[in-house]
Write a structure and sequence with these properties.
single chain; 220 residues; UDP N-Acetylglucosamine Acyltransferase, domain 1; 7-stranded mixed β-sheet; 5-stranded parallel β-sheet; 5 helices
Length: 220
Amino acid sequence: MTTANELEELIQIAEMFTMTGNNNDAIRTKAGGKAMTKTEKDRMLAGEMYRVDDSLLREIGRAQSLTDKFNALPIDAREEQERILRQLLGGVGKNPFIMRPFVCDYGSNTYIGDNFYANYDCIIIDVCEVRIGDNVMLGPRVGLYTATHPIDAATRRQGLEYGKPISIGDDVWIGGNAVVNPGVTIGSGSVVGSGSVVTHDIPAGVVAAGNPCRVIREID
């Protein structure tokens, strides 16, 4: 069994590889006498610096192929739409409805609850998990972006990037052209005004809007 000290050592090794820009496909080390491998996907989902390798490119290609098929379907092909969504996304609740076109990076890192609705041009950049509750409505051209990049230009030139997960509670309505940035949580029952840029968490049960998005009032 891996001890706390061994786990801390693994974290330090991972950080060392990240900061030195090591270009190996995986980190190999030892913990409890067993070889461990950390892939670029592991780093990506953990919110660590990573590079998009061939394996991740194949996953992106899979998502693009499925979204191309989804976007080509007529509006009344509900059963086929849902079948593709269940192939594409990590989890899908009851009665999903997404207007075309729809775009995502991986799909497999996105989880939507019951009665999810997204209007035209929804973009989900899901390098980390995007978890969306029940009865959530997204207006046209809403973007949910978990991906971000280093501030330091030299680090960016090494091809390194990272992400932070997004969480949206139940019964949330996000207006058109709003952008939800990496690491944001939006509480249940809240409404986000159109055109907002959400850079920080929004509590439950409020109306919030603006750039940057801020709470305007509580919902009675």
